[in-house]
Amino acid sequence: MRGKRVTIFVGESDQWHHRPLYLAILEHLKAAGCSGATVTRGTAGFGAHSQIKTATILRLSVDLPVIIAGSFILGLIMGILEGNVLSPAVRLAMAIGFVGAYTTFSTWTYETIRLIENGSLLPATMNIAGSVLVGLLAVMGGLATGRML
Questions:
Q1: 8, 135, 140, 12: which is closest to 68 by C-alpha?
Q2: Do the beta carbons of residue 77 and residue 144 sit within 8 Å?
Q3: Over the stretch 9-51, which tens digit does the pLDDT of each residue have?
Q4: How do the domains of the chain map onto residue ranges?
Q5: Is the pLDDT of residue 82 over 50?
Q6: What is the pTM for the complete model shown?
Q7: Which residues are CB-neighbours of 45 under 8 A, at least 6 positions away?
């Protein structure tokens, strides 16, 4: 018997019975006795209607390290400058000016909105809650470290 190649396009956020659709397809192919199957990821493309589609998965794995580091650095700068002769407004402007060039809050916000628009409410909520919680903890850690220096 000669092998056949089949290509199936699904979104990373597509679900079947509360599980990722691509995993369900792989499990079905394995159970059906297929000799192999591979899931690959495309970041963007377009189809018959020429509408460009992009991969909008939960971005915590990409954005969260930047959010954590940026939050920590902001807290660190504010902690170091605390008690300095500079006014609180000038200290904050300096810290945000430096850290603002480093973090990409607008990208994180855009990706979260895309998740919501695609109906991926749970990943969007996890993105928001996880980023805010970890960001707050990182700022607290940065403040504590800056105050000790």
A1: 135
A2: no
A3: 777 677 888 888 888 888 888 888 877 777 766 556 666 666 6
A4: 15-54, 60-148
A5: yes
A6: 0.40
A7: 52, 53
